[in-house]
Design brief:
The protein is mainly α. Helix content is 67%, strand content 1%. It has 26 helices and 2 strands. The protein has a two-stranded parallel sheet with strand order 1-2. The two termini are 45 Å apart. The relative contact order is 0.13.
């Protein structure tokens, strides 16, 4: 057992485990990304460097980037430049030139240059069996995120009835979950940098399944809230850890798959709603929600077992480099090539030769846990935020995208976190002027919720298609703005015209479809907007604002005047409509352009 655990959590890779994948550097061009795409490997790239610059992201205002330094101007993007390499460039000298593109005169660190070489090697291996398996396993994290977020929402009517908690007060259950989510997203992001991606990747689902299942045996409502909060610390790490891990193994040419990864999110909601429909409607009130929670806890544990016991996950080569474990990082690249049945040219000798020049800053590669902690804590300082506002365009973009994340972070749970409660009214209390509706039965409520969940799944698939559509009204920005606007409009329709269960079902199905498009695009669009030197700080603050405002949503919903069935929805619609205005004003579109 001890040997098995070590093989899953602490196995050290060796190139000797993957014989037959290495090719000489002089033959590397025959196994490159360009060769697979049918590009001419022996033709020089005739495009001038002016065709590949950062103005793709910032329009014609070229002088606005000077405040951020030469890193933001006239740079051959590494992903684009490497695709055009010819046979002569697969030499030590050619690789030296290639990894130093973008910032003339800069003293590159040893870690940065080696990371670029690993990016190049993974790009040449391309998408294969290992990457697609990882797509499914990382999808488990997104699946679990919404499985439990919606699962908690689906238990609210039962918790209110069993423990005698008012409909408004029981909404604090969601607050406890969001506290756990906020703590988990921060701790697991930091923990992955200290312990490694592999440990965090496995433990998040394990913690989720343990505390989620224990919540089914809670004797009272405070215990339910406490255990849901602990469960949230596991769920909160799924998106940051799984998303980062997937991207670190993803070839640049396949980076759009991050948008497609979001399809697992509505699938999690669908499965949660189907289980709730079955258990909560067919068992007594004090048993149905407990069986439901125990079931999705078991599903989460099964996903953990599949990740941990059936799949050999490689540690991130970037993390291994940061720990001074270069031989293992190279071995991981060989392992990916072996799993994908491809070849690779990367060796330690090539790495050392490429970085062995006078312009390389020779700093210790190994990064200790204390230095990682210090670096992450320093990211909260203003010195990391100020560069985001050094130019008018970048400052405006930063403020708008943060505003959108904050608005959606509060607006989304104000409606979706309490949707089972709204549906249970059947339109009778949602409309202040119409009395046509009658409360629906629990079976009808959860059946409708399952239908709504089904309607949301195609939204993520459509988002992956529309983000690269050539229409001037689509792309990242257009698709995001349109789906957000329609979401806001149908929230108003839900209140104004949702006077019957059928009307509620229609409006909410359209709402779910559009919101899944919105979230799918937003997760992909945000990191593309910002240049690499400030991308981490920008996206980190966006995620933080999303969680914090989401934490405030249940508090507002529990304290609004009246019966609490209309005001939260109007506020949700107003916030999402405000996010739409912010999206329209964003001065950047990233469709068809390389990431900086």
């Amino acid at each position: 057992m001890k040997r098995f655990l070590r093989s899953r959590l602490a196995r050290r890779e060796s190139v000797n485990d993957y014989i037959g994948v290495l090719v000489p550097l002089e033959e590397a061009h025959l196994h490159s990304h360009s060769a697979r795409c049918g590009k001419a490997e022996f033709e020089e790239d005739r495009r001038g460097s002016d065709d590949i610059n950062l103005n793709a992201n910032f329009g014609e205002d070229e002088d606005e980037e000077t405040a951020l330094g030469s890193a933001f101007k006239n740079s051959d993007n590494e992903g684009d430049g490497m695709l055009q390499m010819n046979a002569a460039e697969y030499t030590v000298e050619g690789l030296r030139r290639d990894v130093r593109r973008g910032e003339p005169g800069r003293r590159w660190t040893e870690y940065e240059l080696k990371s670029k070489l690993i990016n190049k090697a993974i790009q040449d291996i391309g998408m294969g069996r290992y990457n697609w398996q990882l797509f499914i396993l990382c999808g488990f994290g997104w699946f679990a995120d919404n499985l439990w977020m919606q699962g908690v929402s689906l238990t609210l009517p039962s918790l209110s009835e069993e423990f005698g908690v008012t409909e408004k007060q029981v909404r604090y259950t969601t607050s406890s979950l969001y506290i756990g989510l906020s703590i988990g997203s921060a701790l697991w992001g930091l923990g992955a940098d200290i312990m490694g991606r592999r440990i965090a990747f496995n433990l998040t689902l394990l913690i989720t399944s343990i505390f989620g299942t224990l919540a089914a045996y809670s004797p009272n409502w405070p215990a339910v809230c406490f255990l849901f909060g602990l469960m949230g610390t596991g769920v909160g790490g799924n998106l940051p850890v799984d998303g980062a891990l997937f991207l670190e193994f993803l070839p640049d040419a396949s980076s759009s798959l991050l948008t497609l990864l979001s399809v697992w999110w509505p699938v999690g909601q669908l499965v949660s709603s189907l289980f709730a429909w079955y258990f909560i409607t067919n068992w007594p009130v004090d048993q149905g929600w407990r069986l439901f929670i125990a079931t999705i806890g078991t599903v989460t544990f099964i996903m953990f077992l599949i990740r941990f016991a059936l799949f050999h996950l490689f540690e991130s080569p970037k993390y291994l480099l940061s720990q001074g474990r270069q031989a293992e990082a190279v071995a991981v690249v060989h392992g990916i090539a072996y799993r994908n049945r491809k070849k690779t040219w990367l060796t330690e000798e090539v790495m050392d030769a490429v970085i062995d020049t006078e312009d390389t800053e020779r700093t210790p590669v190994r990064v200790s846990a204390s230095s990682v902690l210090k670096q992450n804590l320093s990211s909260f300082s203003l010195s990391h935020i100020q560069p985001l506002f050094q130019t008018r365009k970048l400052g405006l973009t930063t403020a708008l995208i943060w505003f959108c994340w904050g608005s959606i972070g509060m607006g989304y749970p104000l409606f979706n976190a309490f949707l089972p409660q709204y549906l249970s009214h059947g339109g009778g209390e949602v409309s202040a002027t119409a009395g046509e509706g009658a409360p629906t039965t629990p079976a009808e409520t959860y059946r409708n919720y399952a239908i709504i969940s089904i309607a949301g799944v195609p939204g993520s698939l459509l988002a992956a298609y529309l983000v690269d559509h050539k229409s001037p009204f689509l792309g990242r920005k257009g698709t995001l703005a349109i789906s957000t606007f329609v979401s806001a409009v149908f929230l108003y329709f839900f209140v104004a015209f949702g006077t019957t269960p059928s009307a509620q079902l229609f409006f909410t199905s359209v709402e779910a479809f559009c919101q899944n498009i919105m979230y799918g695009v937003l997760y992909a669009f945000t990191p593309e907007i910002f240049p690499a030197p400030v991308r981490g700080a920008a996206t980190g603050v966006a995620s933080f604002l999303n969680r914090v405002t989401g934490l405030l949503a249940p508090i507002l919903a529990a304290n609004v005047p009246g019966d609490g069935s209309t005001a939260p929805i109007y506020l949700s619609a107003a916030l999402i409509l405000a996010a739409f205005v912010g999206m329209v004003l964003i001065p950047i579109e990233t469709r068809g352009r390389q990431r900086l």
